[in-house]
Amino acid sequence: MSLAGAGPATGEKISEPWVQLLTPAGVRVPEPHYDSWLEDIDGGRLQGLYRDMVVVRRIDVEATALQRQGELALWPPLLGQEAAQIGSGRALAPDDFVFPSYRETGVAYCRGVEYADLVKVWRGNAPSSWDPYRLNMAPMQIIIGAQALHATGYAMATKFDGAETATMTYFGDGATSQGDLNEAMVFAASFQAPVLFFCQNNQWAISEPVRVQAQRAIADRPPGFGIPSVRVDGNDVLACLAVTREALDRVRTGAGPYFIEAVTYRMGPHTTADDPTRYRDPNELEDWRTRDPIDRLAAYLKSEGLFDDGFQAQVRTAADDAAAGLRAACTGLSDPSDLELFDNVYSTPHAVLERQKQHYARYLAGFEAAEGGQR
Amino acid sequence: MTTMTFGQAINAGLRKALDRDPKVLLIGEDIGTLGGVFRITDGLQKDFGAHRVVDSPLAESGILGTAVGMCFRGYRPVCEIQFDGFVYPAFDQIVSQVAKLHYRSRGRVKMPITVRVPFGGGFGGAEHHSESPEAYFLHTAGLRAVTPSNPQDAFLMVQQAIACDDPVMFFEPKRRYHLKGEVDLEADLSAAAPLDQARIERPGSDATLVAYGPLVPTALAAADAAADEGISLEVIDLRSLSPLDFGTVADSVRRTGRLVITHEASQTGGLGAELAAGITERCFYYLEHAPVRVTGFDIPYPSARMEQHHVPDLDRILDGVDRVLDRPNSLSGLED
């Protein structure tokens, strides 16, 4: 639980201990309380976490490439946040429900998302992709912090239903400044809603460092709302897994809401449309590279004799297959039909919109008739 | 038939909805023990429990945002916004989430939220307590908006709004809460007029006068007064503000050739503008005069001792009627 030398270079003061089970050098730090939440994590499962992170990073890199090649309009990379997302995502039970932001590729991967559904929105084919009720995960949320209220309301409803499930919401450090997140914490505390707030403090809200959002550790804030919190090394997949497992267990068993701040780093741009060289010291990025979540687990696996050539080749193949699968799914998406434009605005007939649709269909039909005439 | 006030009729409608469907839930500020600042939810928490009638923290975005989450879980939340001017903190959740989630989720997640908003002035309220914000919501795809003008409609329409799978902004003309009327408490919901239909409240032949919510009684009184002068006004209660029932209004205007629309809300970008444009598009060759709007001015809602100038009353409506009939009126001789 030592923090020596781990303070982010953004000037944020880390005043509290955090949970760290794996040092940046890959040395396992015993911590009896949280270790008890990892008793089932044997060599195979450790390798599984590594494979997850490598595959998700490969998916992320491939999606960035697809954007550069003009196949996607935009992509929000998760580069650097793999441990926070895989550690927490693998802690979730199938019945738990997730309300994500737009950067939770790793969490969606843990929920079993299909490749096409990772890119459909960013290719511009649809306003959302996966079926929320198949993944138990809401469509991605672009309004910063809005989903925290949705998660809290969902959690209140599970409580009304007497269901023993947890609701989890993901957001970033920027969202902690939003009214919606603060209102969500008030509602969650007042109704003791079974909701877990998971903040990925990746140090940057586009160009604004976290010190613009918070003068104390973000994890210091929830206790003022009556919500217990914990700060975790977000680049340590074991710590993220253990902390989230414990938190979800508390939430599911009636202890009320809980808040996790995962301290991590957005190694890439905010999105492919962003240029972090305009606002970020390159030394900072280099500093965080030494704390890379994947390298750190690799070092640990190596020390445990779990990182032989065969395993590495297997992981490489899995990553290459995922990249190929993503690319094929992306380029294979068929364009939506013209009049889908009007679908699902309402779930019951709406005369004014029907009329607009009919008029536009006639307009389009005019082109078809003209083209037909030329033939 | 039972004689009851407008407010009691909404209360009775909410009670029916809570009885009918265990997934219906009310959430808002002061709606539980107090029964709402207007007592519209009086007694409901006592009878249905604190999990069905939820006193929320004082956070309107929180009310709407948590309601969205409840919809993901199959609930039908009825959110009470205490006063019209308090709806804006919830505006983002209403416009960006409530209105769009059915579309965003490609029909997989329904948002059957009813947002009850007491609206309008004319009762000496403080700032933010007398506004008519409906136009903001008409501009937002994905929302429906309705307003009843009498107790019977209030009783039925609140139940229809709750039963509707789309989100409905339910505007309640608060200065009419004490208006009494006959209500058939056994009325069959499936036999009620559809929620998106306007109603001809009084047939007439010389001009069509369109009103909604709090100004429907005023419009009917204006029609009485006009009749004394031999002018026959057809009064239409829009009931639905989104979608607008252009069919009913256009049918009327094709008969009368003249349209007056009145509302308390400011004029620019308001419902009168949309109705005038839509009717002109549909009925241009039937119109004998440009549509006339009699509305609140483009000012913040004024202080109580000035509000009588802002809220259209019987005389201002009749002045508009004179204008549309080319009779001498306050603007006679004015070029623009």
Automatic annotation (TrEMBL), chain A:
Cofactors demanded by this protein: thiamine diphosphate
- Tell me the InterPro entries matching this sequence: Alpha-ketoacid_DH_E1_comp (IPR050771), DH_E1 (IPR001017), PdhA/BkdA (IPR017596), THDP-binding (IPR029061)
| Signal peptide residue numbers | none
Keywords noted in UniProt: Oxidoreductase, Pyruvate, Thiamine pyrophosphate
Keyword hit for Oxidoreductase: yes
Q: Where is the Dehydrogenase E1 component domain?
A: 51-315
Q: Which NCBIfam families match?
A: PDH_E1_alph_x
> Know the name of this protein?
Pyruvate dehydrogenase (Acetyl-transferring) E1 component subunit alpha
Q: Give the classification, highest ranks.
A: Bacteria, Bacillati, Actinomycetota, Actinomycetes, Micrococcales
UniProtKB/TrEMBL annotation, chain B:
Q: Report which superkingdom the organism of origin falls in.
A: Bacteria
Q: What are the UniProt keywords, alphabetically?
A: Oxidoreductase, Thiamine pyrophosphate
Looking at the record, the residues that make up the Transketolase-like pyrimidine-binding domain are 4-179
What is the required cofactor set for this protein?
A: thiamine diphosphate
Protein's UniProt keywords contain Amino-acid biosynthesis: no
Leader sequence range is none
One family from Pfam that matches here is Transketolase_C
- Keyword match Oxidoreductase: yes
Name under which the protein is recorded:
Alpha-ketoacid dehydrogenase subunit beta
